[in-house]
Q: What sequence folds into this?
């Protein structure tokens, strides 16, 4: 269902279709997101998609269809969204966004009605929707209309928006949904379908797999379990063996895309693949802001042989070699098995992975050699103090090293800088701001973004520990005609009431805000501007006859060219590994260099801005010629929609 990206088939639906087929159950997948985008146009789809997630604009489009009769002040809602949102402003004027959004909302009701009529005409026994991100309200609207047209059809709802208490609350509040699957449906869907074929909606509770909620629970009460903290929770389904789950079937996605003349030329698709589930880092120490995987972080991975076979199968079936993995995190064992196997196979694919940030130079090089052209490494900050608050398990110097190696070996990064972190200090942002001009030759973040509060995160599980007063994000009240106590159990996104009060009060904001964060935002914009406007800054060394010839086109460069020789060259080469400064001085002194001379060399390199001092380390910033080119934004493994309109002109 809408609203979700157009360039990717659904790995959830594709996998479940294969699971059903393996179990002898015939099914069809309907890509309603493509159908709706074709109807409203790619421009409108992009305008809605760019708006900050907490506004729930994609959900709002369908709210009047899901909840007929509920009153919503559309003008007031859009005024609030367009006045506070910054993401769309680089591409469209607010008046154009309002026009596109209102036109799309007007099409929501007839679209849902036609879709429901088409589904009912196919005479299915079951109609099921997968709901992730902003697909929940559209799914509720469709299932409501299906029930109105044919009450005998059994309806199912699953996906990330149905995890534990969210699924229980959805089932309790919306009776157009017969069954809800909380958790991973891979192992429970076939038994559930067989039970429905036998008993319809009257499946006894003892015949429902763990994690499945049915009509019987509305009468007898919902099953409960204790979560990891001992709190009352709802069971979730869990697939223990990924090897037994068949590859996804994306047939309907490509058939639908090809059939839509208005959409097909605008979308360049990619393929989704899964090599693991859960988070091996989260098993040890969860990042404080992360709500992925619901209550279950248990890490499971597929064997390299299975992954390689699936890549080959999908690539051959759909004539594509670009893959976005949906894994939370790349297993470290991949550097011993999967990645070398991809290198041996001739690097046949362009791949995206999410990784930890504390990778070595050799590991980043291996990623590039294996065809991993884009990563999301979870950098989040260039302040060790903030990284500790966030539970990232790494320090700022390691993040800078990763930025350096990624530029060196031509891997594009997706990363941002998080702000307004609970427990932060403004001076930490100010210290980061001073670093940014030195890093201008490395890839900039996508933005300086205030931290979000997600269900299942440490912030949500224990808000008092972080001094938070969480409440559902404000967009939900414009979408759902529900009291706040129901919303609190239904939604995924939250806001801190105290910070929102500060943002809305110019007096409080003036008293509490310091200069560090605004300065960081300014420095980010300058950094990003250099990369957007071009040419991209360089800090690159060539080597000849015992000398390093450094080309420096950063804005802060003391001079555009410099030759580094002697002890300075030796120290700079050592700094490439970011050693502890005291250890570096002691080691070179032990090799016969005067300690004072080494210290003076360090200071010269800092003054020349060829290195920086952070976390007690000396971090060299110079890249080594040749530097591999980074893939263009539009050529990434995420697929592509039609390029957006010229900024702020339409």
A:
């Amino acid at each position: 269902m809408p609203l979700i990206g157009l360039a990717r088939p659904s790995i959830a639906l594709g996998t479940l279709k294969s699971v059903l087929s393996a179990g002898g159950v015939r099914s069809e997948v309907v890509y309603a997101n493509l159908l709706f985008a074709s109807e409203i146009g790619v421009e409108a789809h992009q305008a809605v998609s760019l708006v900050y997630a907490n506004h729930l604009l994609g959900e709002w489009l369908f709210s009047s269809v899901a909840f007929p009769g509920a009153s919503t002040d559309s003008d007031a809602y859009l005024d609030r969204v367009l006045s506070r949102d910054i993401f769309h402003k680089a591409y469209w004027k607010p008046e154009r966004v309002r026009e596109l959004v209102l036109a799309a909302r007007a099409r929501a009701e007839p679209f849902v009605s036609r879709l429901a009529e088409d589904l009912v005409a196919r005479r299915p026994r079951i109609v099921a929707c997968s709901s992730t991100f902003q697909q929940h309200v559209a799914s509720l609207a469709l299932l409501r209309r299906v029930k109105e047209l044919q009450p005998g059809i059994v309806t199912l709802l699953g996906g990330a928006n149905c995890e534990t208490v969210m699924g229980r609350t959805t089932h309790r509040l919306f009776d157009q949904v017969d069954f809800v699957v909380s958790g991973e449906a891979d192992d429970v869907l076939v038994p559930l379908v067989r039970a429905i074929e036998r008993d319809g909606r009257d499946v006894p509770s003892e015949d429902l797999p763990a994690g499945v909620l049915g009509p019987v629970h509305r009468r007898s009460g919902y099953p409960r379990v204790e979560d990891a903290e001992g709190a009352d929770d709802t069971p979730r389904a869990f697939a223990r063996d990924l090897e037994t789950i068949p590859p996804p079937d994306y047939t309907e996605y490509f058939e639908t895309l090809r059939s839509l003349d208005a959409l097909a030329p605008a979308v360049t698709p990619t393929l989704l693949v899964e090599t693991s589930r859960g988070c091996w880092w989260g098993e040890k120490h969860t990042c404080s802001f992360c709500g992925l995987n619901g209550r279950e972080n248990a890490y499971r991975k597929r064997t390299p042989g299975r992954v390689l076979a699936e890549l080959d199968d999908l690539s051959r079936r759909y004539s594509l070699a670009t893959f976005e993995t949906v894994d939370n995190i790349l297993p470290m064992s991949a550097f011993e098995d999967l990645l070398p196997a991809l290198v041996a196979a001739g690097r046949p694919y362009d791949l995206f992975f999410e990784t930890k940030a504390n990778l070595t130079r050799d590991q980043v090089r291996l990623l590039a050699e294996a065809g991993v052209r884009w990563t999301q490494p979870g950098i989040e900050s260039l302040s060790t103090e903030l990284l500790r608050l966030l539970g990232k398990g790494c320090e700022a110097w390691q993040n800078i090293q990763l930025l350096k190696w990624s530029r060196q070996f031509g891997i594009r990064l997706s990363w941002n800088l998080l702000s307004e972190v609970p427990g932060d200090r403004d001076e930490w942002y100010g210290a980061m701001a001073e670093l940014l001009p030195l890093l201008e030759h490395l890839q900039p973040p996508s933005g300086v973004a205030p931290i979000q509060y997600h269900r299942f995160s440490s912030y949500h599980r224990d808000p008092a520990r972080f001094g938070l007063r969480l409440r559902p994000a404000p967009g939900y009240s414009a979408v759902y005609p529900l009291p706040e106590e129901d919303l609190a159990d239904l939604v995924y996104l939250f806001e801190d009431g105290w910070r929102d009060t500060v943002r809305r009060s110019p007096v409080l904001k003036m008293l509490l805000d310091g200069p560090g964060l605004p300065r960081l935002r300014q420095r980010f914009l300058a950094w990003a501007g250099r990369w957007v406007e071009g040419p991209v800054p360089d800090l690159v060394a060539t080597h000849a006859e015992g000398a390093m010839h450094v080309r420096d086109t950063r804005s802060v460069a003391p001079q555009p060219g410099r030759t580094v020789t002697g002890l300075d060259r030796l120290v700079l080469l050592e700094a490439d590994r970011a050693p502890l400064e005291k250890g570096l001085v002691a080691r070179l002194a032990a090799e016969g260099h005067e300690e004072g001379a080494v210290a003076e060399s360090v200071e010269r390199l800092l003054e020349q801005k060829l290195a920086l001092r952070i976390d007690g380390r000396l971090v060299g910033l110079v890249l080594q010629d040749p530097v591999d080119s980074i893939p263009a934004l539009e050529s990434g493994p995420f697929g592509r929609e039609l390029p957006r309109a010229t900024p702020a002109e339409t």
